[in-house]
Amino acid sequence: MSLRPALFLVMALVVLAAFAVAGLVTGRQLESSLLTRTEDDLVSAGMLLGDRWTSTAGMRMMHAKELAEAPGLAEALMAGDVGGASQDLTSAAEAFGEAPVLVDASGAPYASGSIPVPADLVDATRSGDMPVTVVEVEGGLHLLALAPVKMDGEWIAAAGSSTP
What we know:
Blueprint: H1 3-68, H2 73-78, H3 82-94, E1 99-103, H4 119-126, E2 132-137, E3 140-151, E4 154-163
Antiparallel strand pairs: 1-4, 2-3, 3-4
């Protein structure tokens, strides 16, 4: 082999080695940059989800209050007209695109199709709270919002809505 082809081969190997090193360095820098951006995005996602949950909880609380104060609901329950109360609540809840929830003192649903409600949430409505939480229901999770149904200032039931 003469000198010229040997020099060309050495130069080609040096250029290839330089490209390989540059590729490795660039790859590591890109990986580091992507990891940093991903970590930053994940940190901000937590804040965004927190803000979203706060606004969703406030909205759901207002919906539950409106449902619990639906015209005729408390009167129908006091008269023992569970079917009428359920129908009033269903038509009001459908306006929000939600499923109605109407429960008695033990948390048992008044109407079939309503999800069961944990007793501690029903108890919270007795003290005037309007809980908004995620509950596990057969087949998945539901966002549940409740408010007290009152007649003459007395608690008689809890009403609200749920969405899967």
